[in-house]
Amino acid sequence: MNSNIKPIGVENLAICKSCGGKCCKTYPGPATPEDFGAPDIEKLRTNLIEALSTGMWTIDWINQDEGLYFVRPAVKGFEGSVFDHNYLGECTFLTPHGCELEFEKRPESCRMLVPKVDERCDPQGYTRQTVARRWKEYYDILMDAAIEVEEN
Could you tell me which Pfam families the record lists for this protein (predicted)? Predict the structure, then answer.
């Protein structure tokens, strides 16, 4: 993926407001490596360390043996853990007025979600499995960033 092209999607505040952010109350959307600066390795590492240090972002996994990890916002009440597999719960960035992150700063899976009136929003293929596979080539950087944050 060209680092200059970042998928943005289309925000629909009217639909999201009427729904009340049910998807955000169920689970946080997974972020892609590009959300943190990939393919620029140094930018990715720096941004990961910064994000994980806030406690608002965490590393989750699909299959540890296969190295299928991904980054996502923390679940409310579980902030501060570098690694957290408690995937179900409300996204830490959800407020009574919507997401506290600017649209461009949200995880790619959140930006690309297509809201629908019947609350059957279309995730556009951004499953945890799909996103974890995108992180696989950055596994060493992800683990190095996690170790650095946990040691400090």
Answer: CxxCxxCC
